[in-house]
């Protein structure tokens, strides 16, 4: 039974990672290497959350054994660098301090019941070594290289790898700068010598410092936005107005993106005409670019149906230049630049299309809820009935759907919002007070102390999991919610491209270890934070000790999380939104004049789409076009999904894009 719980957790976490990746990724179109890498990154990140409660309960159990003078389960001591693989750190006292977790035995000997999920200290430490260093390898080396390789416009593998290495130096450079500063500080510090143990600690401290920046930014936003989003979800009318506002903004950007893409396709056509078939090297590179264009573009460049004015040889090219000015033959560098622009344009096009479709579906859903609230038959009747192919959908009838969406959902969401607001208040208070060892002021430290009374290890694990799960949910909410221009966008319903998935994996692997280290500080199980000897978990011993740098151990890594409070206040008062709106970037400001104007435009867009759908009923066609576009974008990834020979290039598959000469009507035309 010792390892059954651990094995079950490993399996369940894997299934969780697979299910989430299936929801966001498109397994059918993206390359298997990307799927495996992202799945591994998400799986390892989730393991931190589910394993650390077992580590906490095991540490408390070892404290109980030592307090009762009972031989520990693992008497053999093995060392790994400066890490002792036993139940305790030999440099600390025997277990948790009496002020932190006390059993109040009153002179009697009390049995130490073995935890139901007990894992030997040596096994736990080796598990953390594998999980932690795997996350570091993925986040700093493998995933960034794959991401840069996927977005490279080079035409050969060697040059793509070179570009990936150069781009990766930018992200790794921040880590190297932090590590270099710490290394110089230790080198010039009197009475301090550099050895392997100190270098090991410095390496982890540099990664933790970078991770704590993410903790402050992402957690500070999520702690406020998660409960607020739940509260706002209960107000369907507010949600509908916000969706209309976003629709008006996205529609303009979508049309601009399609027009820009059309102009670029014209440039690709002209460039292709300038390269003859005799120039095999440039022709080969040009065929790669053409292979990533929509079908109608490839058809115009098909050798069997030449476009008027197409030049097939140098002789014809020089003949044409006698009457008109013809551009010089493009260089390989110009083709690489054109390839880069094409990849960026297709990703931007896909992200705008995904956002457009998502907003339309959300808008239709909100309108259905408002309309059905007045339905006396208490039967939910959507404007566009969805296909109930899922197992859950087969058990949901219109009556149940009406009860949930029109009656229960608002109460459930607001109840959850109140609960989460209380959790946020507890987190903020604990973040401000967790470094105070006496008296204990951290709410979470008091909760663990109460749960550990009488060796209730199950209670300890449940409380620990709830705490770290809420912290992770708030931070992960920010990761999955933020939009970095048109570069990063996580969308459900299989609408996330490979670049965004890799970027998300990097974020999670860099964020989660520091988040868990912060959690251990909140519950007073890190002696180097509360400045008092206490039991060390296996995870804390993996992260090393901060004794080599007084500046780090006494200041930065202890008080830096307090900045979370400042970001929470900024998010609560929407300072970022107000600043952007003041600078001219329209934001949803409730009753603002510009906001009301965009909401009215969004209403007319929704009505226009309603009329078009009633006439054409092309819902399935739109879905097919989205899937084809996703496949086209994922084929940008340079992982071998696109053929480069001329026959395969010109065969192609349909992409469902608009013709480059007809990028779509303007906003004024649609709203007319």
Structure description:
The protein has 24 helices and two strands. It has a two-stranded antiparallel sheet with strand order 1-2. Helix 2 packs antiparallel against helix 14 (457-481), helix 3 (121-150) crosses helix 4 and helix 6 (236-274) packs antiparallel against helix 10 (332-372). The protein is globular and about 85 Å long. It is mainly α and 672 residues long.
Oligomer designation: single chain
Strand order of the largest sheet: 1-2
Question: Which parts are unreliable, with pLDDT below 50 for 5 consecutive residues or more?
Answer: 74-109, 303-327, 641-672
Largest sheet: 2 strands, antiparallel
Envelope shape: globular
Q: Number of helix segments? A: 24
Structural class: mainly alpha
Q: In a nutshell, what does this entry contain?
A:
Helices cover 67% and strands 1% of the residues.
